[in-house]
């Protein structure tokens, strides 16, 4: 893990002066930050700071009141969430959306044509070599399941998985959509310490495979261990930005958030 921020790395994502107002309430006042390609960047802050709102803007679920979001130079704020997913900006949700009545394998297979991949799927079905293509996709699903450590559960109904396994399945479904930038919304919520540990390893390995990660997470140990860079939001404004060891020592951050968070993480 590279703890130092490489200023020369090209940003895959640039959030420029994004503002979000909800009829009088300012959820995000003005937010600008960049996510360098190939890094894990965490967006942290107290409850209500604007983290989920920022995710919703980046993924096209919410149009900002002002500002832009550039993904490899393309302005995402003009595009539908489906188009954005099709470009490779893929998110997971706080509540994992799985098909409980389908097998783990089929859930991941479905992930290949969810999230904006419908056109590709349709085109594939028209190919004469559908069978070869199906085999290729099944091999890809098997590879993803092995990657997240769920191969042994492939034929199980997703609804029968333990909670921690369902979170891993959520990640596997997102990986099936071939993300370039993966947004993880509180992936460790509700996990026990050993599950969190395993999850941290998975997230780092996803980064090591070349997928850039933007993480919203309350578990400070996870954030401080795996992030290359941390962006701190408070009341809709960025109050600090930098590598974990700098953020950890920033008095404004400690005041706003970390004091409580670190205590919580250690307790
Ligand atoms: N659709 C909405 N309509 C009105 N206000 C909203 C809406 N969505 C969010 N807000 C408000 O915007 C602010 C930011 O909320 P947001 O959910 O982005 O915070 P957060 O940092 O993700 O919090 P948490 O850590 O609790 O998930 C809050 O004051 C929230 O109540």
TrEMBL record:
<dbReference type="GO" id="GO:0005524">
    <property type="term" value="F:ATP binding"/>
</dbReference>
<dbReference type="InterPro" id="IPR032823">
    <property type="entry name" value="BCA_ABC_TP_C"/>
</dbReference>
<keyword id="KW-0614">Plasmid</keyword>
<dbReference type="Pfam" id="PF12399">
    <property type="entry name" value="BCA_ABC_TP_C"/>
</dbReference>
<dbReference type="Pfam" id="PF00005">
    <property type="entry name" value="ABC_tran"/>
</dbReference>
<keyword id="KW-0547">Nucleotide-binding</keyword>
<dbReference type="GO" id="GO:0005886">
    <property type="term" value="C:plasma membrane"/>
</dbReference>
<keyword id="KW-0813">Transport</keyword>
<dbReference type="InterPro" id="IPR051120">
    <property type="entry name" value="ABC_AA/LPS_Transport"/>
</dbReference>
<dbReference type="GO" id="GO:0016887">
    <property type="term" value="F:ATP hydrolysis activity"/>
</dbReference>
<protein>
    <submittedName>
        <fullName>ABC transporter ATP-binding protein</fullName>
    </submittedName>
</protein>
<dbReference type="InterPro" id="IPR027417">
    <property type="entry name" value="P-loop_NTPase"/>
</dbReference>
<dbReference type="InterPro" id="IPR003439">
    <property type="entry name" value="ABC_transporter-like_ATP-bd"/>
</dbReference>
<dbReference type="InterPro" id="IPR017871">
    <property type="entry name" value="ABC_transporter-like_CS"/>
</dbReference>
<feature type="domain" description="ABC transporter">
    <location>
        <begin position="13"/>
        <end position="260"/>
    </location>
</feature>
<keyword id="KW-0067">ATP-binding</keyword>
<dbReference type="InterPro" id="IPR003593">
    <property type="entry name" value="AAA+_ATPase"/>
</dbReference>
